[in-house]
Amino acid sequence: MRHIEGEDLRGAHFRDVDMSGAQFREAVLNGVRMRGVELVDADIDGAIYGLRVNGVEVAPLVEAELNRRHPERALLQDRTVAGLRAALDAYAQMWESTYERVASMPAGTVDVSVDDEWSFAQTLRHLVCCTDGWLRWGAQGRRDADVFWPAGVPHSQFSSRAGSIGIDPAAAPSYDEVLEVRRQRVQEVRDVLAALTPEEAGSPAAPPPWMDQSEPFTVGKCIGVVLSEEWEHHSFATRDLDLIDTGAAPSPEST
């Protein structure tokens, strides 16, 4: 398989090419125009806005269907303090049920990577990093040395600079430690929301180092990002657990 990585293909034209089975990861496809294409059995995950297929804008249809399938997802639309609290309660319960599911699966399941995605344990480490960045750094404005857990997993685009915020790329915590820290961070979010007033939620906040620092954020918006990450990554994690369960992905014994 040919690998193309790190190349600037902006403005490139692809004509009469066969890209069947191609994989795009961390790719920017903004403004792509596709005409006369054949797109069968494709699978797309990402931030997709303004996409039109045969003249129909897709995003509103996808949003409505996701909310129909997952009613708890609609909680993200209420960014009031009360709405944030309700979303946290729902998502924390979702995750606890998933922890129980994983505990009943074969040993080593937490370290299985499906289709080169993060393993379950890595996903939890990423959520810790997100909470550290959006809650501690962003909403709380903390700048002390231990804002970021050294074993957190940052976004892929920021991984090369992870050391600048105290993250150790070589960290290999046990799953028990990961789960303990993860639950601590959820409790931190709960504690902050319990004391948060609407006025405080609307006050300015700085986004974490991996974000565009020129975009304005508020305390409430920062916490909203934490909760969005909670739902999105739970969706990804359960998708992969389903594949492991059905044998459509490598089992722990084969990895």
Short description:
The chain is mainly alpha-helical and 255 residues long.
Shape: globular
User: How many alpha or pi helices?
Assistant: 6
In angstroms, what is the radius of gyration? 20 Å
Strand content: under 5%
Helix content: 40-55%
User: What's the total count of β strands?
Assistant: 4
Describe the structure in your own words.
The longest helix is centred in the last third of the chain and has 28 residues, at 219-246. Helices cover 42% and strands 3% of the residues. Strand 1 and strand 2 form a beta hairpin. The chain has a two-stranded antiparallel sheet. The two termini are 22 Å apart. Helix 2 packs antiparallel against helix 4 (175-195). With 255 residues, the chain is mainly alpha-helical. It has 6 helices and 4 strands; from the N terminus they run E-E-H-H-H-H-H-E-E-H. The protein is globular.
Keywords, please?
single chain, 255 residues, mainly alpha, two-stranded antiparallel ribbon, 6 helices, 4 strands
List the helices and strands and how they pair.
Blueprint: E1 52-53, E2 56-57, H1 59-69, H2 81-103, H3 120-139, H4 175-195, H5 198-201, E3 204-205, E4 217-218, H6 219-246
Antiparallel strand pairs: 1-2, 3-4
Helix pairs in contact: 2-4, 2-6, 3-4, 3-6
